[in-house]
Amino acid sequence: MRLKNKTALITGGNSGIGLATAKLFIAEGARVAITGRNRATLDAALAELGPNAIALQADATDVAATEQAVADAAEAFGKLDIVFANAGVPGRTPVGASTLEAFEQVLRTNITGAFFTVQAAAPYLNDGGAIILTGSVMSEMGSPGSAAYAASKAGLRGMSRVLASEFAPRGIRVNVVSPGATRTPIWDSSAPTPDAKAQLEKRLSGVIPLGRLGEANEIAKTVLFLASDEAAYINGAELFVDGGTNGAPFGGPVFRG
Question: Which residues, at least 6 apart from 14, have a Cβ–Cβ distance to it below 8 Å?
Answer without folding.
Answer: 34, 35, 36, 38, 41, 42, 44, 45, 55
